[in-house]
Amino acid sequence: MDNAHTEELIHIKGPEGVRLAGAVFRPSGGDIEPAGITWVHGAWDNFYVPTLVHLSRTLARCGYLSVTGNNRGHDLATALHVEGRAPALGGAWWEDLEDSADDVAAWVGCTVELGSRDVVLAGHSLGALKAIAYQAQRCDPRVRGVVLASAPSPSLLAAIVQDAELRAEAEGMVAQGRGSDLLPFGTVPSFLGTVSARTFLSLSRAAGETYDVAIARLHCPLFAFYGTEEAHIGTRDDLEAIQRLARAAPRVDIAMIQGADHHYRGHRDEVAIQVARWIQEIAQ
Description:
Radius of gyration: 18 Å
Oligomer: single chain
Number of helices: 8
CATH architecture: 3-Layer(aba) Sandwich
């Protein structure tokens, strides 16, 4: 850590009193930009994933306070702790994406409480879908803009949940009261390997709603980008589709990061600087 910023581990009480861990990256001295950045991590990731830590450190050196926080879908599996209750199943395998807006709300509120006048909501990977869902549902006036960092493309979402037989199996398991049981390993066509039956159906709903409905409800500026080395996640064609679908947004900026993979290895400073410049542009 350099002298240009400080880092602090924090814990907040999220939805239903669930304890969520996170980190705050603050510029040291000088003027701090009025907009803070709330990061939403991707599937099976967490608040300390190197991608978000590096981006937040660089953004702090650019004058921006950043908050990275766990949501209830962090890591593949986790125990969700609420005082006075037995731990509940959490993590990417047992997540209900419909509940993610409450997690995001807690961290947006935390960012404001730390002194930010307003917030840029930035989601990486699956976290980008959660950012879209949050702002589409809440129309939070504190959110100045939304950053979609390598959001799963419409075609990728469709590929994950297109198996009608698997959907029927998941529906049957939920109907039998076995919604928390995992689907057979390898049946979910993604790096997750498997998810619970309930989570698979939640992903199916998100796949149908994110680009068909939710993104059209965003009334704030958007910045969407992919690396050129993550075509399995999204391409320039997908960015142009996002531009068309986000028809209520006052501006939609897109970028391809040359040579970058899904976690921007070797290009994280470049990504952070592009995000910082975009925030400055929408503030004018």
